[in-house]
Every structure is written in C-alpha cells, then in structure tokens.
Amino acid sequence: MIFRPFYTDETGCASYLFGCATKGLCCVVDPLEREVDAYIGFAAAKAMRLAYVIDTHVHADHRSGGRALEERSGAKYALHRSAEVAFEFEPLDDEQVLELGNTIVRVVHTPGHTPESISLVVSDLRRGPDPWFVCTGDTLFVGAVGRPDLPGHERENAAQLHRSVRDKLLSLPDSLEIYPAHFAGSACGAGMSGKPMSTLAFEKRWNPLLQLPVSKFVDEVGGTAPPKPAEMDDMLRRNRGGAL
C-alpha cells in the first residue's frame, strides 16, 4: 500500500492519500483546497489514479478540496448519504466497502461531531485481511474527541458521539493505528495532542475522555468546546455548495 499523510501545521489539519500500488488506484481523505495540486502531483508520481475523494464530514474550519479534485481527476467525490449539501455526490452508507485493488476501505457511520460523520477502516490484503488503520475524521483525536456543538444540540450530539466512539471505534482491534483529520492547532476539538496519529490501544489507556461514562462524558465534552472556527458560516456555506 502507498500511504502519504499531508499535514498543515498552522491550522492543525491532516489529510491522507492511500491506495494500491499494484492496481494503481488510490483515494484522498479530507482534502484541503490549498493542497489539490499536491495530491494530484503525488498520485501522478506514483502512477496512481484517484478513484475516490472522501470527506469524513462537511468541514467548518477549512475549504474542502473535494469537488476541485473531482473535477480535475475524475474521481468520485463521496460523503455519507445524510450529508446536507447542494450538489450531487457519491453517497456512502454504514458498512459499505470500497475496493481499491488490494486496499479495502470499510465505511463506519460515526455521528456526533456532525450527523454525517464517518470513519474509514482500511485493510491491505497484501498484509492480510485484518484492518491496518482507521481514519477517524473529527470523531476521535489523539488525546481528545471532536466537539459536538457546531451543529447545535451539543448535549444530544455529545451522547451520540460517546456511542459512536464506544460502540463503533473502541470495538475495533487495539492494534489499529488511528489517523484523525486534526491535531493540536485546530479549533475542532479541545485538548488535542500535537502528535498527529496514535493507536486505539494507546487512546484507551491515555485518552481521559474514553474512560468516562456517558453522563460525565456529556458534561465534559459538551461544556469545554473552544471558540467556534473563524468564518465558520462561510466555510460551511462554501463546502455545502451554497446556501441550502
């Protein structure tokens, strides 16, 4: 498997390009508009075709490069089916499987940060059938979880986020690496580590929020969100394709 992270230190954003070198197929997860040329250039250098561009949710802190990559590469731009946007996209469902040659991507619906949030469990069949890593979007960070207040109804969303983390992510093998969409410097969560990746075993041991029962989790996560991202409304409007 080819795997390449792209980190933007000043905003704490992370995006990922990965796929099957044998078949020359890849995808980009949580692309930034400013990095579109870099994704296309890297894929071309590895003789890979972009088959999918996936946003784990509609981002509120930066301009997504999803539609620009779709236009320039011919890749399918994918979001969870429930995403509220004003353009056509490839709809993804819970437990859907995307095949990129030997790279297998399983979609897991993990709402809480936003209703349409997903995580992506990735396997490399050349290593074996067991999953290798999970792209957790804004659901689970290193040392933290995503903020639940951006869509409103933050206590209800926090309870849903707790279920997504507990039932969907923590039930995965401890050995899985996790690659979130943000690290320290982002306003999409509180208390994020400057370390951009981790493992589920490490988070179970050291992430303090994962030890809390749902009532305390809701109190803690629902009441500690940082200020909302600057220009949030404008970013959401752009990433949704205009006012709905």
Write up what this structure looks like.
There is one protein chain. The chain is α/β, with parallel strands linked by helices and 244 residues long. Helix content is 24%, strand content 28%. It is built from 6 helices and 14 strands. The chain has helices at residues 36-45, 66-73, 154-169, 200-206, 214-222, 232-239, and strands at residues 2-8, 13-20, 25-29, 49-54, 76-80, 90-92, 97-100, 103-109, 118-124, 131-137, 140-141, 144-145, 177-180, 198-199. The strands form 3 sheets. A 6-stranded mixed sheet has the order 1-2-3-4-5-6. Strands 7-8-9-10-13-14 form a 6-stranded mixed sheet. Strands 11-12 form a two-stranded antiparallel ribbon. Helix 3 packs across helix 5 (214-222). It starts with a strand and ends in a 5-residue tail after the last helix. The relative contact order is 0.15. The mean pLDDT is 92.
Main β sheet profile: 6 strands, mixed
Structural domain count: 1
Order of helices and strands: EEEHEHEEEEEEEEHEEHHH
Structure summary, number of beta strands: 14
Distance between the termini: 39 Å
